[in-house]
Specification:
4 helices, single chain, alpha+beta
Length: 216
């Protein structure tokens, strides 16, 4: 189990081997985790923390070709990732982490090699977002928009995207697909609550060639 930041540890999980890491784990934080998992049969990694920690774990598993490891998530409260995958939170999530069954689900990543587990937001540097975006062959917008939100889905084709308009403005009109591509003179990208350090002119999120094993 990897406990990230100051996330509370449910009593149900206290019997597990526990390693600690920052709220946003880095590459080196997973070395001991993988060393331990490689010594057991049917390895399962339980991440206790927020969506950023969950995404970091999936990213490292993808980059190191360890997608055969089962991955369970125990957030303290409801998060975009919990909503996207229909997961529990708190003590109920801890029970699922121990007793749940792992099933393969689509893995969504971007062109920077970072996995997405909950939500990505693309916004303008100042004011509205300028540019255009497509989901597969469907144009999401061209010109200006309040922003774009992108989320993974449990089922194929793997992701959905929508103009980030207020809910009272008619809600989100989702378009599903395998990939979403966006071009802009300059956009602010936030993945699972973590802002990209620099503005981007292009960004692509797409379904990875391999699935990952989510405990639900």
């Amino acid at each position: 189990m990897l406990k990230c930041g100051d996330a509370p540890l449910p009593l149900t999980l206290t019997s597990l081997t526990t390693l600690t890491a920052p709220a946003l784990p880095g590459k080196d934080d997973f070395e001991d985790v993988f060393a331990h998992l490689e010594s057991v049969e049917d390895p399962r990694l339980v991440v206790v923390g927020g969506d950023a920690a969950f995404a970091a774990a999936l990213t490292r598993m993808m980059r190191t070709e360890r997608l055969g490891i089962e991955l369970a998530y125990v957030p303290e409260r409801r998060t975009p990732a919990a909503e996207a995958y229909g997961l529990r939170f708190g003590s109920k999530a801890a029970t699922v982490a121990l007793q749940g069954v792992a099933r393969p689900v689509p893995l969504i990543r971007d062109d920077a090699g970072i996995a997405l587990v909950g939500r990505a937001l693309v916004e303008g540097e100042v004011g509205e977002l300028v540019g255009e975006a497509y989901v597969d062959d469907t144009r999401l917008f061209s010109g200006v928009a309040p922003g774009v939100r992108i989320e993974p889905t449990v089922d194929m084709p793997g992701l959905r995207a929508a103009i980030d308009r207020p809910r009272w403005f008619g809600g989100y009109r989702w378009v599903t697909g395998r990939a979403v591509q966006l071009g802009s003179p300059g956009a602010v990208l936030t993945r699972d609550g973590v802002a990209n350090p620099r503005a981007v002119k292009r960004s692509t999120f797409y379904r990875h060639e391999h699935k990952w094993k989510l405990v639900r």
